[in-house]
Amino acid sequence: MSTTTVLKPVSLQGARLPKWAPWGVAVTAVAVAVAAGLAFGLHSRVQWGLIAAVLFVLGTFALSAKVEGRRQAKDRVATSLVWVAFLLAVVPLLSLVWETAVRGVKVLDGYFLTHSMGVVADAEPGGGIYHAILGTAQQVGLATLIAAPVGVLTAIYLVEYGRGALARAVTFFVDVMTGIPSIVAGLFILSLMLMLDLQPFGFAGSLALAILMLPVVVRSTEEMLKLVPNELREASLALGVPRWRTILKVVLPTAVGGITTGVMLAIARIAGESAPVLLLVFGNNFINANPFEGAQASLPLYIYQQYINSAGSTAAYDRAWAAALTLIAFVMILNLVARGIARWKTPR
Amino acid sequence: MAKRIDVSGLSAFYGAHKAIEDISMTIEPRSVTAFIGPSGCGKSTFLRTLNRMHEVVPGGRVEGKVMLDDEDLYGPGIDPVSVRREVGMVFQRPNPFPTMSIYDNVAAGLRLNGSYKKSELDGVVEQSLRGANLWNEVKDRLNKPGSGLSGGQQQRLCIARATAVQPKVLLMDEPCSALDPISTLAIEDLIGELKEQYTIVIVTHNMQQAARVSDRTAFFNLEAIGRPGKLIEIDETERIFSNPSVQDTEDYISGRFG
Amino acid sequence: MDISTRKPQAGDDDTVSAGAATTPAPSDPGPDGKPAPTSGAPRTARGTTRRGDRVFLGLSRGSGILLLAVMAAIAVFLSYRAALAISKDQGNFLTTFEWDPNSTEPVFGIAVLAFGTVVSSVIAMVIAVPVAVAIALFLTHYAPRRLSGPIAYVVDLLAAVPSIVYGLWGALVLVPHMNGLFSWLNEYLGWTGLFSWQGGPARSMLTVGILLAIMILPVITNVSREVFRQVPKAHEEAALALGATRWEVIRMSVLPFGRSGVISASMLGLGRALGETMAVATVLSPTFDIQASLLDPGGGTFAQNIASKFGEANEQGRDALIASGLVLFVITLLVNGAARVIIARRKEYSGANA
Question: Do A290 and A194 share a structural domain?
Answer without folding.
Answer: yes
